[in-house]
What we know:
With about 200 residues, the chain is an all-alpha fold. It has one domain. It contains 6 helices and no strands. It has helices spanning about 5-30, 40-65, 70-95, 100-130, 145-180, 185-190.
Amino acid sequence: MDAVLPIDAYLRYGVLPVWLAAGLADWWCHRRSRIEATSGLRESLLHLAQLAEVGIPLLAALCLVPGPGVLAMMLAGLALHEWTALRDVACAVSRREVTPLEQHVHSFLEMLPVVSTSMVAWAVLARVLHEGIGPAGFALRWRDPPQPYLSLLLVAVLLFAVLPYGEECLRDIRWARAARHGRATATDLSGVSEHER
């Protein structure tokens, strides 16, 4: 289908690389703000949730024929992501400084799922107008994504999203254990309320 090709290329070579770069920049901002000594694991788990809420529907958009089922999955992921993002920001701003740079990075992380979902919506609309919804309706059908691209994408997601945020969670856990056992230094504990220790 003609409408899918430019959208697919833009998702693969535009949206996804920018999303991974923004996610890595956000992780770096968390590291600089010493997230482990402030909002800790609670906020980091929200980051992992957002990764899944955006990543799984995007992967579906790349691997499945664009149709109402894929669009429904992306809309659900988008709604969940926005709800989780609100909780994430509420958690962060109440426990640590969220710098202007981090806020700017968040704008990318919030808008890229909106952009990708709206683009897939156009492809689905074109398909429905051309073919109708048909008896399959919301059925999910596989398509053949280019294997080298998909392999590189999965490696990039592992290197630039899963591993950094996994490291963030491990850092949070280590710091919390050290704080519980009195091994965290006074500098480590500065800015952390008694109730969070």
